[in-house]
């Protein structure tokens, strides 16, 4: 019915092919005199979305989630995933060949310490692990009397005979009408951070940081407009951008050369070696810099200084141009979302729609805006029990028909040049049960608590996280993911360093954009999530004795009134909901057709206790 441009629904490979790959890989390890190897779901820069040439974990195991790790030993093998992917991994991985284990509690290192034997040689690719990750592996090996071996070339690549070539997405200039700040001004701010750190140079190992600093975007990975690249910013003198020249048009090269020298990626190692030989101290991002970089600098006599990438925080605080752009992007996205939700309400009760139909339809409505560059992540469209899989991704094999009595959870986002969106709505198909209403209303109350939060400047995401969970906790239930993540400006939909979660230690600053997405998941039953994006703004409080912040909700889309148990809401919560729906109606209504207006009026009508 609809043509999908950005997403495919093919099932990952399984069965005989994967069994043969594991056998071939073990043979290669034996040839290299290794008794085991660690395969992270990572590229050289720890990107969330990686190029097809970097999908080693999926190629070997069949697991296609965005976070995970595998360890292959001579007789055992394990895939480690976090709580979002437990159900998915159990379905994708051959459990006769692989154990499925938790990624965090306990960590993979505990499993390694138990399964390695004295004298074992565990290999790892230092370009695919951070130094901290390598140190954890080394400690696990030491506990078992084993040795951690950094390999010069990845043994998995030796058996991956049909490995795709590296990507060559063209680089685009992200103009001042979107970026709001010239590269020269950004570099001045970065150099102040280099002075503060007391180092001679800073390596930008995160391609997002390179893209933001030099106002470029690219097309090397799915869903995030990244140009895979590095940069070296010295305390004095011109920075250097290391990027494959085949990605650069004349105009893109001219743009970069206004503020930096441009070299091929292979030039990074000799440049760092030369700096290190002069005893330079070089700052590395502990979250994205490969262990290989630390090793290279130290071996040449320099001082690798690991810590937080200062660009990460600069990038997270949006300027006025970026904020206005994201507001525009959300208003545009709201029109597509509203058309989609009206379509679902009209078509789903007929019983013919599937999850894939909904993914393709929503993408089509977004494409109709004329501004869609990509979806910001693969759309999660789960109905019935599929909705309980937190990061479910529909394939042709799992594609489920939407039936009356189901809940449809649809989590999606868009990349527009002026902003990135991410929104989740849970829709009742037919009559929901009392249990569905109870759980939905608890999730909604937590969502409203975050949206209405007022908090002193310097408050962290961890301090706010409880607000989202309190009503679920009262019923003895919870959700196994963070409440919110940072969002970029036509960059990653999952941006650090700030987040709302039990582990969110970064203070929230005005200008940051974060998601607000509590949920509830009943295994083999249904899933519920309500997600809006929030902008941190100054709170206007008379008599406040210190700076106080609040959230401005950016997302504009109706919340399903049929799933709300009004007896569970208090007056202030109901007031927030009615005000929100009035704003949605006011901002979206002029831009939709007459039939959608009728639907929108009903979907946003005020509720009374």
Describe the structure.
35% of the residues lie in helices and 19% in strands. It is built from 19 helices and 28 strands. It has a six-stranded mixed beta sheet with strand order 4-3-2-1-5-6, with helices on both faces. It has a six-stranded mixed beta sheet with strand order 12-11-10-8-13-14, sandwiched between helices. It has 609 residues and is α+β, with helices and mostly antiparallel strands. The mean pLDDT is 95.
Helix and strand topology:
Elements: H1 16-31, E1 36-40, H2 56-61, E2 69-73, E3 77-81, H3 86-92, E4 99-102, H4 108-115, E5 121-124, H5 131-144, E6 147-150, H6 155-159, E7 172-173, H7 176-179, H8 183-197, E8 201-204, H9 207-213, E9 216-217, E10 230-234, E11 240-242, H10 250-257, E12 261-263, H11 268-277, E13 281-285, H12 291-299, E14 303-307, H13 310-316, H14 320-347, H15 355-367, E15 374-375, E16 380-383, E17 407-412, E18 414-416, E19 419-420, E20 423-428, H16 434-451, E21 454-456, H17 461-473, E22 484-486, E23 495-500, E24 513-516, E25 519-522, E26 526-529, E27 532-538, E28 548-553, H18 571-588, H19 594-603
Parallel strand pairs: 1-5, 3-4, 5-6, 8-13, 11-12, 13-14
Antiparallel strand pairs: 1-2, 2-3, 7-9, 8-10, 10-11, 15-18, 16-17, 17-20, 18-19, 21-28, 22-23, 24-27, 25-26, 27-28
Helix pairs in contact: 4-5, 11-12, 14-15, 16-17
């Amino acid at each position: 019915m609809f043509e999908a441009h950005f997403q495919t629904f093919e099932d990952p490979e399984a069965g005989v092919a994967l069994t043969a790959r594991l056998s071939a890989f073990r043979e290669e390890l034996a040839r290299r005199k290794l008794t085991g190897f660690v395969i992270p779901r990572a590229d050289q820069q720890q990107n969330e979305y990686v190029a097809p040439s970097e999908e080693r974990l999926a190629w070997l195991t069949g697991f296609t989630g965005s976070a995970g790790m595998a360890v292959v030993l001579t007789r055992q093998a394990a895939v480690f995933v976090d709580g979002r992917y437990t159900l998915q991994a159990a379905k994708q991985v051959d459990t006769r060949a692989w154990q499925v284990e938790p990624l965090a509690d306990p960590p993979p290192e505990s499993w390694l310490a138990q399964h390695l034997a004295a004298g074992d040689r565990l290999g790892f690719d230092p370009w695919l692990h951070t130094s901290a990750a390598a140190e954890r592996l080394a400690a696990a090996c030491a506990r078992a009397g084993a040795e951690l071996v950094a390999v010069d070339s990845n043994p998995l690549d030796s058996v991956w005979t049909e490995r795709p070539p590296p990507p060559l997405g063209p680089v685009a200039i992200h103009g001042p009408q979107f970026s709001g700040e010239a590269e020269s001004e950004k570099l001045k701010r970065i150099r102040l951070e280099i002075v503060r750190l007391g180092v001679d140079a800073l390596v930008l190992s995160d391609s997002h940081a390179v893209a933001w600093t030099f106002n470029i975007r690219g097309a090397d990975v799915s869903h995030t407009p990244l140009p895979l690249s590095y940069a070296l910013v010295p305390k004095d003198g011109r920075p250097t951008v290391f990027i494959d020249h085949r990605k650069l048009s004349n105009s893109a090269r001219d743009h970069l050369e206004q503020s930096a020298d441009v070299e091929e990626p292979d030039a990074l190692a000799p440049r760092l070696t030369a700096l290190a030989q002069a005893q330079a101290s070089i700052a590395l991002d502990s979250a994205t810099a490969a262990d290989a970089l630390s090793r290279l600098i130290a071996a040449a006599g320099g001082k690798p200084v690991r810590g937080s990438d200062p660009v990460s925080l600069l990038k997270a605080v949006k300027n006025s141009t970026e904020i206005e752009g994201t507001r525009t992007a959300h208003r545009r996205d709201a029109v597509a979302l509203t058309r989609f939700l009206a379509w679902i309400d009209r078509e789903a009760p007929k019983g013919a729609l599937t999850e894939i139909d909904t993914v393709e339809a929503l993408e089509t409505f977004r494409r109709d805006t004329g501004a869609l560059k990509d979806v910001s992540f693969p759309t999660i469209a789960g109905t019935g029990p599929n909705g309980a899989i937190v990061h479910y991704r529909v394939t042709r094999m799992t594609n489920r028909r939407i039936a009356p009595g189901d809940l449809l959870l649809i989590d999606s986002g868009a990349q527009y040049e002026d902003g990135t969106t991410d929104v989740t709505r849970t829709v009742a198909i037919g009559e929901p049960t009392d249990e569905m209403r109870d759980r939905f209303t608890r999730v909604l109350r937590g969502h409203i608590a975050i949206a209405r939060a007022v908090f002193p400047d310097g408050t962290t995401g961890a301090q706010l996280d409880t607000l989202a969970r309190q009503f679920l906790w009262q019923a003895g239930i919870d959700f196994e993911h963070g409440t919110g993540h940072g969002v970029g400006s036509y960059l990653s939909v999952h941006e650090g360093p700030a987040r709302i979660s039990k582990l969110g230690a970064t203070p929230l600053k005005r200008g940051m954009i974060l998601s607000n997405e509590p949920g509830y998941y009943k295994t083999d039953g249904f899933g519920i999530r309500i997600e809006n994006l929030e902008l941190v703004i100054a709170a206007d409080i008379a008599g406040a004795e210190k700076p106080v912040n609040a959230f401005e909700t950016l997302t504009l889309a109706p919340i399903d009134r049929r799933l709300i148990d009004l007896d569970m809401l208090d007056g202030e919560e109901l007031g927030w909901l009615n005000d929100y729906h009035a704003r949605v109606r006011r901002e979206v209504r002029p831009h939709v057709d007459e039939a959608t207006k009728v639907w929108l009026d009903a979907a946003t009508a005020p509720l009374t206790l």
